[in-house]
């Protein structure tokens, strides 16, 4: 979400500021409904996939590529030009490699004890995504060293490349692991909580927004909108754990965690979503843009949709890994 208050479009807006707010709201509602319907359908199909995440993985790859392109375009506007193919390859390698390891890597039987082990997804510590991330970073470093010709700009290009791998690829890795390890319900709870928080920020900000949250980064975001985001995120968390998670996969038996787990999840993930939104606003503000692209009218670009999801993914992952949300 971009706007947490009822002010007019900011001067950094593209030509879309000339459209009527009512028209834009209707378009956002229609497009948002279509996106949600498509996502629900894919999640339903994925529950019966031969491997967890098989039907969702192509969507994740497309999102990773498009988000990478938008991020690199923002970087180019700021004068930073890392070798693009290494970032594209690195982010795709991160999400696909981590998914393959998580979904297909199985334990081997002990030949001395004669034990048999049923194939099942492997539960990894966060060290594995970091190892895959390290391999992608090495590729970026290697290519930047290889193409060096003269001093100036090299450090900035390396930093931009590593940040792009961290911001897009590594964050999506945590989403991939949530799907593989804890099932489609864990993924749905994360998305519902974050997007309910986005909706609460927009609604409460438009109705009651008065006090600026970060005026130099995003003038339209308000403290009231942030409070609304946390409240709606908790509501989304409650709905997810009441109506979605227990019935998301009939093959898995869900055992709830402590009663306060959904509250902590809503607050932590909602706060991370707010910070993710502000982080992307900072990137756009630095180059004088309102949206990461105009690919989706009314929403902006892929990064504008994923902004609150990306930095909240490891927070949601931690909440599941800690056991506060229960287990399957």
Short note summarizing the structure:
The chain is mainly alpha-helical.
Can you describe this structure?
By secondary structure, the chain is mainly α. The chain has a two-stranded antiparallel ribbon with strand order 1-2. The model is unreliable at about 5-20 and about 105-125 (pLDDT under 50). Helix 2 (about 55-75) runs antiparallel to helix 3 (about 85-105), helix 3 (about 85-105) runs parallel beside helix 5 (about 155-180) and helix 4 (about 125-145) packs antiparallel against helix 5. It has 10 helices and 2 strands. Helices cover about 65% and strands about 0% of the residues. It has one domain (about 30-320).
Principal-axes shape call: globular
Number of structural units classed as domains: 1
Percent helix range: 55-70%
Work out the radius of gyration: 21 Å
Mean pLDDT: 82
Beta-strand content: under 5%
The structural class is mainly alpha
Q: Figure out the total of helices.
A: 10
What is the CA–CA distance across the termini? 32 Å
Oligomeric nature of the chains: single chain
Strand sequence of the main sheet, in spatial order?
1-2
């Amino acid at each position: 979400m971009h706007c947490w208050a009822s002010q007019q479009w900011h001067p950094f807006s593209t030509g879309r500021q000339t459209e009527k707010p009512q028209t834009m709201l209707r378009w956002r509602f229609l497009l948002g409904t279509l996106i949600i319907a498509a996502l629900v359908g894919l999640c339903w199909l994925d529950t019966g996939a031969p491997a967890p995440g098989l039907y969702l993985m192509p969507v994740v790859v497309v999102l990773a590529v498009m988000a990478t392109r938008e991020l690199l375009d923002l970087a180019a506007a700021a004068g930073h030009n890392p070798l693009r193919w290494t970032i594209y390859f690195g982010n795709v390698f991160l999400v696909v490699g981590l998914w393959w390891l998580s979904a297909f890597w199985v334990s081997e039987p002990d030949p001395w004890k004669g034990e048999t082990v049923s194939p099942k997804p492997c539960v990894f510590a966060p060290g594995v995504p970091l190892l895959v991330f390290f391999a992608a970073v090495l590729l970026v470093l290697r290519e930047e060293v290889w193409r060096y010709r003269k001093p100036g700009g090299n450090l900035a290009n390396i930093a931009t490349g590593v940040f792009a791998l961290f911001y897009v690829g590594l964050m999506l890795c945590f989403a991939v692991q949530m799907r593989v390890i804890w099932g489609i319900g864990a993924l749905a709870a994360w998305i519902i909580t974050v997007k309910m928080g986005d909706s609460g920020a927009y609604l409460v900000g438009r109705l009651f927004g008065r006090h600026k949250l970060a005026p130099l980064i995003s003038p339209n975001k308000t403290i009231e909108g942030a409070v609304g985001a946390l409240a709606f995120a908790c509501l989304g968390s409650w709905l997810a754990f009441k109506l979605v998670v227990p019935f998301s996969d009939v093959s898995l038996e869900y055992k709830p965690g402590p009663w306060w787990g959904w509250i902590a999840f809503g607050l932590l993930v909602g706060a991370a979503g707010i910070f993710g939104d502000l982080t992307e606003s900072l990137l756009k503000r630095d180059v004088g843009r309102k949206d990461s692209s105009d690919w989706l009218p009314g929403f902006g670009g892929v990064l504008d949709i994923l902004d609150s999801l990306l930095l909240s993914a490891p927070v949601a992952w931690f909440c599941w890994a800690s056991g506060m949300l229960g287990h399957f």
